[in-house]
Amino acid sequence: MIVEYAEIDGFKNLCGISFEPDPKYNIIIGQNAQGKTNLLEAMWILSGCRSFRGSKEKDYINLDGNRMSSKIKIRDSVREQKISFEMTRSGQNSKQLFLNGVKLKGSRALFDVFKCISFIPDDVDIIKGSPERRRSFIDMAASQLNPMFVIHINKNNSIMNQRNALLKEISQNSAKADILEIWDRQAAREGAFISYMRNDYVKKINEICGRLYRTISGGEEELELEYHSNVFKPEDFEKPCGEEAYERYFAKLRETADYDIRTGCTHAGVNRDEIFIKINGVSAKDFGSQGQIKSAALVMKLTQAEIFMQRSNDAPVVFLDDVMGELDESRQRFVFDIIKDMQVFLTTCNESALLPEIKGKILRISGGRIETSP
Fold this sequence. Notes:
The protein is about 40% helix and about 20% strand. By secondary structure, it is of the alpha/beta class. The strands form 3 sheets. A 6-stranded antiparallel sheet has the order 2-1-4-5-6-7, with helices on one face. It starts with a strand and ends with a strand.
């Protein structure tokens, strides 16, 4: 998959940008706060994913502007497609998404159209951040292989919101406790499915992560990922996800129901899962060095790209934000070997720090505008 054309205007500080990317490497050069990361972000949001920087949609529009638009034309192994995102500060239709000229009701449809993977400095939080950060990474990566997973994630989130609201009502005697069982039945089916999907994906990436990390560490260190379900034991996943799994999940929710009512929130289920990441058998979060943590996060992202290539006819588009220039030559070469068959957009303040074989279109950005050169 490649991006053939991009047109961006009014997204944060970006103004009047249009260019035809190189099918291989696109090197975005500029000093800090000039718009390099904004350019990646403006394309990324067309994948149907939330901003990789955590930006809220209301912040997409330039502070001095009233509208923004981001448009790309992509080509995969089957056809060309056009995606556009337009937003204004006011009006009934303040946000509009289009796929091949057809207006979309939501962004979920884009998730199966524009496949891309990003790596930004904050991705080290996959290792050292909260369990929610690791769950989110696994959920998004697994959803790229099976977009139906997004439906189950969204449905589970909706059920949990309803369940937690009901818990508060029950604690205030404004609702009956037996209503909770209805929501628990629904939560059990969605939660069990998500548990099995997470377990399956962690098993897939564990082997590849181990191999890549051994390479990047010169064969001296081992990286291991373990999925710890709040409901299921490892041996439970040897059986298919069916009625037995639903009943086990339901029983767990009923087991903590009284405590949930007293506290007003859910304490069992997929919202309490953890993915343990170990280097040489010990917690990377608690005992890993900065270099180990950064290498582990990079390996997990590269593994995501490799798995996608194995399962699809198309390679994902890769966004690398201030990554390559911070790596030594051996680690740059390691990354280069994995992404060499993918279209890459990378940002840097110092092009001389890049490997000489990383050649492609140069986009120099200053004050939210770019000039291209061959």
